[in-house]
Amino acid sequence: MKAKELRDRTDEALKELEKSLSNDIFQAKFKNFTNRLNDTASVRRAKRDLARVKTLLTERTRAASGEGK
Question: What is the domain extent for residue 21?
């Protein structure tokens, strides 16, 4: 998922996506531990997508509160 695509989403959609990605990471880790995960790179991709979402949410909250660098 590209950051540009994520910037077009609303805060609520990003929060739902954050929950979904967290759950996906948990499920993928569990499947990997039990040797049922075929694509191990999916864990890494999901972690990076989650980091992008969290970064955008943090940027938006800081911008809303007037805090900046």
Answer: 8-65
